[in-house]
UniProtKB/TrEMBL annotation:
Domain 3-hydroxyacyl-CoA dehydrogenase NAD binding: 6-183
Keywords: Oxidoreductase
Protein's UniProt keywords contain Oxidoreductase: yes
Taxonomic superkingdom: Bacteria
Protein name per Swiss-Prot or TrEMBL: 3-hydroxyacyl-CoA dehydrogenase NAD-binding domain-containing protein
Origin species: Pendulispora brunnea
C-alpha cells in the first residue's frame, strides 16, 4: 500500500464518506475538522455507512471494528504532518478553502499531494495559493462516496503529469475508477447537473409539477435511478446553492442564476436529507 496514512480535511457528508472508503480499504485516516460536534456526527456517519455498504455489497467482507479504529478524529491540524496524501472536503466557499490551504501547506510535507474535493471551485486557483501548485489536483467524489465507483479527476493549469498518476494510484487503492478532465468551473458533471437541478427547482417554484412528478419523469422516461430533486436532497441543497453561485460568478452567464426558491429553502434550513427536509421529507 503506497498511501499508508491519509489526511481528510472537513468531516461533513463528503469527508465522512471519503474517510470510510479509506478505512475500509486498510488505510490509516486522520480526519480533521474545526468542530467536535461535526467530528462526532462523522463518526456516526461512518458507522452507519459501513453497515449500509455491507448490506448492499454482500460479496465484499469488511471488518467494521478494524475500519472504525483506523480513523483518528481530531481538531488538531498539526496531525496532518504525519500523512502521505490529503483529501480536502471543506464547504464550497472560497474564503474557507483559502484559509484551509494556507494552513495545511505549512504543516504537510512538501512531497504530499493535495486533492481538492470540489464540485465547482477552480483547481488552478487553489494551486495558486499554495507553494506546491504542481502537486494540487482536483478529485470530485460523488455522494455517497463509498457506494460510487467513479471519481472526476481535474487537472489544474500547474498540475504535474506525475501528480495525475499519483491521483490514479491513490484512487485505485480505494477501488475507484476515474476520468481525467480539464479545469473549468463545474468541470463536466456539475456544469450539467447543477443546471438540471436548478431548472427543476424553477419548475417547482412555477408550480409546473410536484417534486415527485418531476423526478418520476426522469426515472420513468430516461431510466435515471434518481430524479434531479431527490439527487439535490442527497447532495444537500446548501451545497447545490453554493455550487450554482460559483458557476454564476465564474461564467457571468445568466443561465446559472440561482433559483429564488432554492435560496429560500436554504435560508429556511431545508438542506435535504442531512437536515431531514428538502424537496422531500425524511423526518
Amino acid at each position: 500500500m503506497e498511501f499508508k496514512s491519509v489526511g481528510v480535511v472537513g468531516a461533513g457528508v463528503m469527508g465522512a464518506g471519503v474517510a470510510q472508503s479509506l478505512a475500509q480499504t486498510g488505510h490509516q485516516v486522520v480526519l480533521v475538522d474545526i468542530s467536535d460536534d461535526v467530528l462526532a456526527n462523522a463518526k456516526k456517519e461512518v458507522r452507519n455507512g459501513l453497515r449500509a455498504f455491507s448490506l448492499f455489497n454482500k460479496k465484499e467482507t469488511i471488518d467494521h471494528k478494524a475500519s472504525m479504529e483506523r480513523i483518528s478524529y481530531t481538531t488538531d491540524y498539526e496531525r496532518l504532518a504525519e500523512v502521505d496524501f490529503v483529501v480536502e472536503n471543506v464547504t464550497e466557499k472560497w474564503p474557507i478553502k483559502k484559509e484551509v490551504y494556507g494552513r495545511i501547506d505549512t504543516i504537510c510535507r512538501p512531497d504530499v499531494v493535495f486533492a481538492v474535493n470540489t464540485s465547482a471551485i477552480s483547481i488552478t486557483k487553489v494551486g495558486g495559493i499554495t507553494k506546491r501548485a504542481p502537486k494540487v489536483v482536483g478529485m470530485h467524489f460523488m455522494n455517497p462516496v463509498p457506494m460510487k465507483p467513479m471519481v472526476e479527476v481535474i487537472r489544474g493549469f500547474h498540475t504535474a503529469p506525475e501528480t495525475i498518476e499519483t491521483a490514479k494510484r491513490f484512487l485505485a487503492e480505494i477501488n475507484k475508477q476515474c476520468v481525467v478532465v480539464e479545469d473549468m468551473p463545474g468541470f463536466v458533471s456539475n456544469r450539467v447537473l447543477m443546471l438540471t437541478i436548478n431548472e427543476a427547482a424553477f419548475l417547482i417554484q412555477d408550480k409546473v409539477a410536484s417534486p415527485a412528478d418531476v423526478d418520476r419523469i426522469f426515472k420513468t422516461c430516461f431510466e435515471h435511478r434518481m430524479g434531479p430533486l431527490e439527487t439535490a436532497d442527497l447532495i444537500g441543497l446548501d451545497t447545490i446553492l453554493y455550487s450554482i453561485e460559483v458557476l454564476y460568478e465564474s461564467y457571468n452567464d445568466s443561465k446559472y442564476r440561482p433559483c429564488p426558491l432554492l435560496k429560500k429553502m436554504v435560508d429556511a434550513g431545508l438542506h435535504g436529507r442531512k437536515s431531514g427536509r428538502g424537496f422531500f421529507s425524511y423526518e
